[in-house]
Amino acid sequence: MKNIYVTSPLLAPLDEFIPYLEEIWQNKQLTNGGPFHQQLEATLAEYLGVKHICLFSNGTLALLTALQALRIHGEVITTPYSFVATSHTLLWNGLTPVFADIDPDTCNIDPGKIEQLITPATTAIVPVHCYGIPCDVERIQSIADAWGLKVIYDAAHAFGVKVDNQSILNFGDLSVLSFHATKVFNTFEGGAIICSDLKMKQRIDFLKNFGFLDETTVVAPGINAKMNEVQAAFGLVQLKHIDAGLAKREEIYQRYRKYLDAIDGIESFSVPESVEWNYPYYPISVESNYGLTRDELYEQFKTIDVYARRYFYPLISSFSMYRGFPSADESKLPIANEVAKKILCLPIYPDLTEEDQMKIINFIKENTKVTQATSTLP
Ligand SMILES: *Cc1c(COP(=O)(O)O)cnc(C)c1O
């Protein structure tokens, strides 16, 4: 039997990719902002409905560079409920992460918990649109405006997400995407920074290329974080299939909802009507009235070759390099700690078959709590 993972990375057939490789072999430009790189930037900016996009070799280097581009220093308020890269890039920039608790309905940073964490050293907020569910961007922006803070969204999950027909990537000072193989849209590895100002794009572009402004001028201590031509070409091919892929994801989401909503102790997530979602994950919350604990369900799934993922467990704040920060204390992050114990992400990807999905659904159904029949005595 084949293993079923939470995601599957290939949207396009191999033969569509071959002509692109032939072109690279002909023109011999392998990297440094070649033709496919330029084409992917233009095509993605239009597809996503954003002003400027700077491509990167991965999302982590894009986050690292976004913090450099805005010269963020001191303390940064962020969420503990994310992939470790969100906080790791703060440490790599010599910044102090300050963890704020999350909203249980969205798993995103709770805007009501931000202001109490602001100190004279705070310079930025780094929220995550977790599972592609939009943060409360209006409230976060009004806090940032009141306190003079920058906002950089880790939008690694939010490719293509819109609110009231506006790209979620247009909020905050910068947004960062990941095109890792596990994401909705991938370039094997890859990432991007979204910005609205051409001068900022130019600054980011030289920061990702060692700080070179031109052949002989180095204007900043840049890094090498460029996307290469093979990645960019793959992105162009994948992009042709993204709409079909998103439609399949929605279909799979709806089928899960139809069956799982009827199961006691299994809670699914919804997005508001105004959100055009991308269905990147299918998180369920395994409640105490279900027949198994979250970890038992996670382990039992393996017996039918299903490899679900506990995104995000453990919390970033509980890893050894973060535990010592005052804001990482479990008692200060009660919601995040509770959610991290209950969440499980189920397989969702365009070529997940209905048969495999029903196998997953039926397994969840079979493990519901057996309630004792209560006999009523006369
Ligand atoms: C995937 C991911 C990243 C890292 O992106 P890479 O492209 O793998 O470097 C950062 N933040 C979040 C929330 C992610 O899910």
What percent strand? Answer: 15-25%
Instruction: Identify the CATH class of the largest domain.
Output: Alpha Beta
User: Which residue ranges are poorly predicted, with pLDDT under 50 across at least 5 consecutive positions?
Assistant: none
CATH topology-level name of the largest domain: Aspartate Aminotransferase, domain 2
Instruction: Tell me the span between the first and last alpha carbons.
Output: 53 Å
The biggest beta sheet reads: 7 strands, mixed
Shape: globular
What's the arrangement of strands in the largest beta sheet? Answer: 2-10-9-6-5-3-4
Give the distinct bound molecules: pyridoxal-5'-phosphate
**Can you count the beta strands?**
17
Strand and helix order: EHHEHEHEEHEEEEEHEEHHEEEHEHHEH
What is Rg?
Answer: 22 Å
Count of DSSP H/I helices: 12
Structural class: alpha/beta
Helix content: 25-40%
The CATH level-2 architecture of the largest domain is identified as 3-Layer(aba) Sandwich
Q: Averaging pLDDT over every residue, what do you get?
A: 96
Question: What count of domains describes the coordinates?
Answer: 2
Pfam families: DegT_DnrJ_EryC1 (PF01041)
GO biological process, one term: polysaccharide biosynthetic process
Keywords: Aminotransferase, Pyridoxal phosphate, Transferase
InterPro entries: DegT/StrS_aminotransferase, PyrdxlP-dep_Trfase, PyrdxlP-dep_Trfase_major
Description of the structure:
It contains twelve helices and 17 strands. It folds into two domains: 10-101 and 108-239, Type I PLP-dependent aspartate aminotransferase-like (Major domain) (Aspartate Aminotransferase, domain 2), CATH 3.40.640.10; 242-375, Aspartate Aminotransferase, domain 1 (Alpha-Beta Complex). The strands form five sheets. It has a seven-stranded mixed sheet, with helices on both faces. A three-stranded antiparallel sheet has the order 8-7-14, with no helix packed on it. A three-stranded antiparallel sheet has the order 13-15-17. The protein is an alpha/beta fold. It is 35% helix and 16% strand. The longest helix has 19 residues, at 242-260. The structure holds pyridoxal-5'-phosphate. Pyridoxal-5'-phosphate is lined by residues 58-60, 82-83, 85-86, 128, 154, 156-157, 178, 180, 191. GO terms for molecular function: pyridoxal phosphate binding; transaminase activity. InterPro entries: DegT/StrS_aminotransferase, PyrdxlP-dep_Trfase, PyrdxlP-dep_Trfase_major. Belongs to the DegT/DnrJ/EryC1 family.
